[in-house]
Amino acid sequence: MDLVERHIGSRIRDQIGQEASVIVLTGASQTGKTTFCESQLPNILGLDFTYISFDDPDERLRFHKSAVSILESLDRPLAVLDEVQKIPSIFEPLKYVLERQRKGGDRQTLFVLTGSSQLLTMPNLHATLAGRSSLFNLYPFSFAEAARIEGEPLLSKIWKARTLPPDAARDLDLLPPARIREVCRARDLHQAWGGYPPVWRIPDDPGRAQWLRDYRKAYLDRGVPDVGQVADLDTFSRVQKLLCARTSGILSISELARETGLAVNTVKRYINLMVMTFQCFLLPSYYEDAGKRLVKSPKVFFPDAGLNRAILGDVAIGAAPSYESWVFSELIKWKQLQPVEPDLCFYRTSTGMEIDFLLTAGDRILPIEARSQERAFATDGRSLEAFLKSHRKSSPIGLIVYPGREIGEVRKNVWAVPDWYLFSGAR
C-alpha cells in the first residue's frame, strides 16, 4: 500500500506561527506517528529535519549525559523527538534551549515531540511548553484518508455556511455509479475493520483479524502497564470488554462495578487508563441553562470497529450502536481539522428527547442524528426538528447521517445526507 496522506498535515502547517516552536503529536500506538513525522511532515512544512527516537536505549543514555549540548547542536530547522515520554528528563533541557532560542532571536529550531497519551500526563511537559506549543492527535485513518479522497468534506461546507450548499444534491446526482460503488466499498471496509494503518496494508480478513488480536494483546501486555498500575490484567480486560459492548451508551460506573465485583474507584481508574490510551472516549452531555434538566453522565465510545472486533471476539455489537460509534470516530477526526475546533457533545433530556451529536462553537450548534438503515424517514428527524424550533438562532439546520445514496429533506430544515458523501465530499 502506498503512503496515505494524513489530513492533519495541512492543519499543522496552517497553525504553526512565529511564536510556536514545538508541535506535540500524540496518539495510540500504530496510528502512524513516526511515519507521518519522517515521510510527510517535513515536506508539508518545507523543512529539512533531524530524527531522534527515544525507543533506542543508547539514545536515551546519550541525552541523559548531555541533553542541552545535543539539542543546541541540532543544525536543521526541524527536529523530531520520537517517543519522548520514555525520557521525562528531556523537558527541563528542552525548556532551557527554547528560552535561549527565544532570547537569541537568531536560528530557530521547530521541535516535534511525539508520544503516547502518557506524554500528556507528565507535569514537566506543561511547564516546558506553555505558550510555545501546538497540540495535535493522530488518530487511525479517517474514512476519507483510507479511501484517498482529498478536498473539503461536505460537512465542512455545511458547518461554515450553516446550511446545505445548494449544489450538494446536484453534485451527488452527477457522480458516476461506478465511483459511488467504489467509495461505498471503501466505506464498508472502514466500518468493518477500522482505520489502523497496518490493517489497510493487509489484503485479507483473516490477516486483519490476526493483526488486531495481536495489537490488543500488546496493548494489554505493554501499553497498559506503561501508563498505570494494574494488579490483574485479566480483570482489566474484562472491564474493557464489558465497556466496549456498551459503546454509544450512557456510562454507568456503578453498573460496571456491580457486574465485575470491583470497587467503583477501581473501575474509574481502569476507564481513565483506557481514555488515556485512546482506547475509548467519553462524550459529555450538552448543558444549556440551569432550569433545564439534562442528563449529566457521559456517553462512552469505542470508535474503531476493527479493534472492537478484537476486544469482543464473538460478541457482536448491534448495528445501531456500531454505526453511531463509527460516526463518532469520523466527527472527532473531522473537528480537529477545523480552523476553530468545535466542541462535540450529545443531547438528552430527562424526558427522553435525545440527539446523538451536537457540534457547538459560540452561538452555532449543528445537531446530528446517526441512522444505520439504508433509508431515512421523517420519524428519524422528529427530535432534530423539535431542537431546531427551540434553538432557531443557533441551529438553522439539522442532519441525519445514514448509509444511503440520496440527499433529502425529511422534515423542515432536517436533511438526510449519505455518510460517505458527508465525511468526504467525494467527487
Labels describing this entry:
six-stranded mixed beta sheet; 19 helices; 427 residues; 45% helix; 16% strand
**How many extended strands?**
14
Cα-to-Cα separation, first versus last residue: 22 Å
Report the sheet-strand fraction: 15-25%
SS-derived structural category: alpha/beta
Mean pLDDT: 91
What can you tell me about this protein's structure?
The chain has 427 residues and is of the alpha/beta class. 45% of the residues lie in helices and 16% in strands. It has 19 helices and 14 strands. The strands form three sheets. It has a six-stranded mixed beta sheet with strand order 9-10-11-12-14-13, with helices on both faces. Strands 2-3-4-1-5 form a five-stranded parallel beta sheet, covered by helices on one side. A three-stranded antiparallel beta sheet has the order 6-8-7, covered by helices on one side. The protein is globular. The model has no long low-confidence stretch (mean pLDDT 91).
